């Protein structure tokens, strides 16, 4: 199992010119403050920095246009991950750019999964299997203030992009199915998808063959094909020559039609210009004044003899150009007519060759002979192709049987039962400690249960489930020991006794060696140790006094990301 730890996160808003750096203690980091001081926005940003978007984000936080750098370590190797919008860049401990990513699902997700050996594969609504985005890796470790205390497995957005993901996710994280199960199952699904293509081909080939066999001409004849050889060769040569000529004339006809359209457009433009000049000249000639004021803008214009003469010259040029275009158009129409006739003659000659093919030799036409011989050849090719396709399907089926046997062996019933029993044992312990007395065991017996209680018991029952799953993740699971991130456990107006029970459980009964980030208004005098981050400015999670230094610190990541 990969070790994992958070070192620090930098959050920066150029729009507000504010920033904040939070350093994480290896054991416990408390983020404390009254309501509306931005605790939740900072806590939501921890997994957001990895591409796991929370289910709800405050509008003011969205407006701040945050960029982040989160520094973390896995197996003592340190990394920095930069995020702005949907752009991510991963850096080594020496700030060397390791990769840039523009898509969470298609680029960042697979890379992060590879980094943490996260082999879970889920099925999208479209039916395709893929590595899920980072939210599915961090789900067991996060309770969001807005959604996590009312429903389990609900703290991130867009989880429904996958079909029936809940059981697969729980089985993966708790180790009911080992990593290898998901690797082999992914190979199986890929093979099943690969099999669809030859199956479609087999179906199409079968339909074509049946159709061809029903159309085969059943005529008894004895024909010496060699007696037709010379005629066939001549006809083939003639057809090829005529087809080339026909194509040549068609191409030339297209070019001529294009020239015709162009010339007619030019002629229309020149004619319009000439009409406008005629109107200008008539208007100028009707006025006796040598100076004209524009009725629209009031500007003055000369109306001398020289000006009117210039208009007349323009008219003459338009007339000359119009005459040239008209002549070119007439010449072009002659060429068009000539090529149409030539094309018609070529097509007629090609038709005559086809008529030769229907010339009868007794009761059998040459065309019938050629068609039947061709169909026999095609049928032979189709049968060979069908045989190859069926062989390919058989090979895939054999490999699928092998993979299915491995999957069945890895899906160990005894391990599943032992894991579920351990889960129920943890649930009973935690529910008792948290003073949840009315939740029957059948309500949480399944390891992927949706926990439902009423009133103030609901958050405590969810905390019991959350910690029970984490114990299994730690002892049996496939997932790295990610930090536990919990925001505001005092939900549904817990009395002091119950909230203290919740906090004491988080302090002393969470999985061993788990890094905890906990958002609180009041710690009720419980000493968690570690580090306390105080949040005191109303509606301001970020700080003015940290902006300059952190903007300078983040600049190198921003520049490298833009260049990368």
TrEMBL record:
Parts forming coiled coils: 225-266, 322-349, 386-416
Gene3D superfamilies registered for this protein in UniProt: P-loop containing nucleotide triphosphate hydrolases
Entry protein name: Rad50/SbcC-type AAA domain-containing protein
Keyword flag Coiled coil: yes
UniProt keyword annotations, A-Z: Coiled coil
Organism the protein comes from: Nitrospira defluvii
